[in-house]
Write a structure and sequence with these properties.
By secondary structure, the chain is mainly β. Helix content is 9%, strand content 43%. Bound molecules: 2-acetamido-2-deoxy-beta-D-glucopyranose (NAG) (4 copies). One 2-acetamido-2-deoxy-beta-D-glucopyranose binds at residues 474, 499, 501, 521.
Length: 649
């Protein structure tokens, strides 16, 4: 439009020697704005100004004035633009132009440093052109502010007509403020401009088509406009996960799905595997917002391990494209970092230059990449990963090394998988290895003529230990020389007349422990209450009874403690019924007691079966543990009533 006005200016300039007169047209009944010097006046200082005069008599306007001073301190800037329309404060505004407004206007610019310059305008009045009317290709007038909705690839035509007979009237189309089409005279008294768009693209969305009718230079043209509406399928549906498909099991994570360029805004649904995720469902939170081009749905998801390798799908639904699916799909990778399964802190007895092996077991998903082993001196070794057969998420790693002089203190094992490094390490203590510690044994009298010895093992010194028991008489004759891995012995046919000494010790590959000597003759006789009435107590039984009397309580306490451990072990085994490979290569059930119970059957010595927990699966909240003392082969209470004791834990 500016171009047109400038062309009009240059055509209508009348050259005179001192001033130039320009003829400009204004429309009757509407506002007109007269430019001073084509709107390009530059005032060269605070004392320069512009004066407007009409017919060289009437003073109309001065710039700057109090009003414009207030608005703009800067004298260089009198053109203020507000969006598409600019206003020039040096121009002269004529409100609702009437017949009396025609005539000669003079704009005089008083410069500070140079002579003043005059611009003279001859304002001629013209009649308003007709208001533009817009029609579609079928000839129907479009009265709404929009046109469509259109779909991609369609064609459309917009026709603009203006009733006007004045020769200088211009009718033209603007699209988003750019002139695209001029009118030509259709038939007498009607100007017509046509816009035809083929193969409509996305660019037509919200395009602003405006038809203008203009026959004046200083009056705004008349116009009519429409905005193109379209239905558009999404250009893109994208699940945004920052290239990280790893979800920590059970940990909520926000997933955004962005749908671009879908009109009208889509509804978005999420699917995990075959399940539609609903906002109301457990651990699913949805949040959606729409911003012009973009619709974003935010999902907060806390997937479980079962959801791993399932597809998470974001689907955009546009009601106008019912038959097409717009979606993005990712495959979830759910897992967690390794967790230590070696619960008990193990003490490893190490000897310099003697190969040591230790195994670390973790629960992890997915498989760990490696295990690291850190010694107290910060030395770190790495080992490879082995799957534990029969368990889905269990992995182990074994370190075999030659201990050095400084290898004492903590040894920490940590596994690392794609979800990170194990937080709490599996921890071991390295101590100087050697022979085992001596066992702690109690002696029980058994019926009849039988001696029971139960030994609690001490630390094994780093190698598998065996408990040995030797019973020798005063003259040095060896009555018994037996060994057992569990440390439980039952010795029949012990003759009370002999002055016997029991010697217990433990041994491993590194040697023997100190001896634990028990002088059996020092045991005091027990009152005969435990013996049945019809058979008078035989004298030899006295010291054994004494042994039973003084040791029964200790044994009961020890057995009770063992029972508690066994119960605990069983309870732990219920949730974790698995064997854990141990450093010595054998399998090891926690705690030791349970394992030793199994071993008993394979020992050729009849070993203790006294301490056995019954009722451990009873419904009672307090499981009872029954300890039978001195009644080895009598599970029924009545067969051995005198010596039966029950303890409840
Ligand atoms: C329509 O335009 C698209 C690109 O916007 C083009 O790929 C397609 O070939 C065009 N169709 C016709 C019929 O011109
Ligand atoms: C909408 O997004 C597309 C793709 O990012 C872009 O090409 C287009 O210009 C955007 N349109 C608008 C109106 O922002
Ligand atoms: C008992 O047997 C072991 C070997 O089995 C032997 O070394 C030890 O000397 C024996 N003890 C006695 C007192 O004979
Ligand atoms: C039994 O033998 C020990 C040494 O083995 C001895 O000290 C004790 O006096 C003896 N007792 C009897 C009653 O012979």
């Amino acid at each position: 439009m500016l171009v047109i006005v400038v062309i009009l200016f240059s055509l209508k300039y009348i050259s005179t020697i001192d001033t130039e007169m320009v003829v400009l047209r204004a429309v009757r009944g509407r506002d007109a704005r007269l430019p001073c010097g084509q709107g390009r006046v530059f005032l060269d200082g605070p004392d320069s100004y512009v004066l407007w005069l009409k017919n060289d008599r009437d003073f109309l306007y001065r710039f700057p004035n109090d009003d414009t001073e207030r608005r703009s301190i800067n004298h260089d800037q009198f053109t203020t633009c507000d969006g598409a329309s600019c206003r020039d404060d040096t121009s002269l505004l004529l409100k609702r132009v009437g017949e009396e407004d025609g005539g000669v206007y003079r704009c005089r610019v008083h410069y500070q440093a140079s002579p003043s310059v005059d611009y003279v305008i001859d304002v001629r009045l013209v009649d308003s052109p007709g208001t533009p009317r817009i029609y579609d290709e079928r000839g129907e007038e479009i009265k709404r502010a929009y046109f469509g909705p259109l779909s991609l690839g369609s064609d459309f035509t917009l026709v603009c007509e203006v009733d006007d007979e004045q020769p200088d009237t211009l009718v033209y189309w603007r699209r988003n403020n750019e002139v695209i089409e001029r009118a030509h005279s259709a038939h007498a008294g009607v100007l017509r401009a046509e816009v035809r768009v083929l193969n409509v693209s996305r660019a037509e969305l919200d395009a602003h088509y405006e038809c203008l009718a203009q026959n004046a230079d200083v009056t705004e043209p008349l116009s009519a406009s429409v905005v193109v509406k379209m239905y558009l399928p999404p250009q893109k549906v994208e699940i945004r996960l920052n290239n990280n498909l790893d979800f920590e099991a059970g940990q909520p994570r926000v997933v955004d799905c962005v749908v671009v360029g879908c009109v009208p805004p889509p509804t978005i649904s999420w699917h995990l595997g075959d399940t539609l995720l609903r906002p109301s469902a457990h651990k699913v939170f949805l949040y959606e917002f729409h911003d012009g081009n973009y619709t974003v749905s935010s999902l907060t998801l806390a997937p479980s391990l079962r959801d791993s390798k399932h597809s998470l799908v974001c689907r955009a639904h546009n009601s106008h494209f019912d038959n097409v699916i717009f979606e993005d799909k990712v495959t979830l990778n759910v897992g967690y970092r390794p967790i230590c399964l070696t619960r008990r802190e193990e003490t490893l007895g190490v000897v310099q230059r003697e190969a040591e092996t230790v195994t670390c077991v973790v629960d992890a998903a997915p498989e760990p990449l490696q295990f690291s082993w850190t010694f107290a001196d910060s030395r770190t070794l790495y080992t490879s990963v082995k799957k534990v057969a029969g368990h889905e998420h269990r992995y182990s790693s074994t370190l075999t090394w030659l201990p050095r002089a400084g290898d004492v203190g903590a040894l920490l094992c940590r596994a690392t998988n794609p979800f990170g490094e194990q937080k709490r390490p599996c921890s071991y203590t390295l101590a100087p290895g050697g022979p085992p510690q001596p066992p702690d044994c109690v002696v029980l009298r058994a019926y009849p003529d039988t001696l029971r010895v139960q030994c609690k093992k001490g630390w094994d010194g780093g190698r598998h230990q065996i408990i040995h028991l030797e019973v020798v008489s005063a003259d040095g004759a060896v009555v018994y020389n037996v060994s057992d891995t569990a440390g439980h012995f039952q010795l029949p046919d012990v003759d009370e007349d002999r002055n016997l000494t029991a010697v217990a010790y433990a041994s491993n590959a590194r040697g023997r422990s100190e001896l634990n000597t028990i002088h059996l003759h020092t045991l005091k006789p027990l009152v005969a209450s435990v013996v049945t009435e019809d058979t008078p107590p035989r004298p030899w039984t006295r010291w054994l009874e004494a042994a039973a009397g003084s040791l029964a309580v200790a044994a009961a306490v020890a057995a009770t403690a063992l029972c508690i451990r066994a119960l605990k072990a069983r309870r732990e085994n219920v949730e974790n019924p698995d064997l854990v490979p141990r450093s010595d290569g054998s399998f090891h059930r926690e705690p030791d007691f349970a394992r030793e119970e199994r071993v008993l059957g394979t020992t050729n010595i009849t070993v203790n079966q006294l301490a056995a927990c019954q009722n451990q699966y009873s419904a009672s909240p307090v499981p009872s543990c029954r300890v039978l003392v001195g009644c080895a082969h009598a599970p029924a209470p009545e067969s051995c009533p005198a010596t039966q004791h029950s303890y409840y834990v």
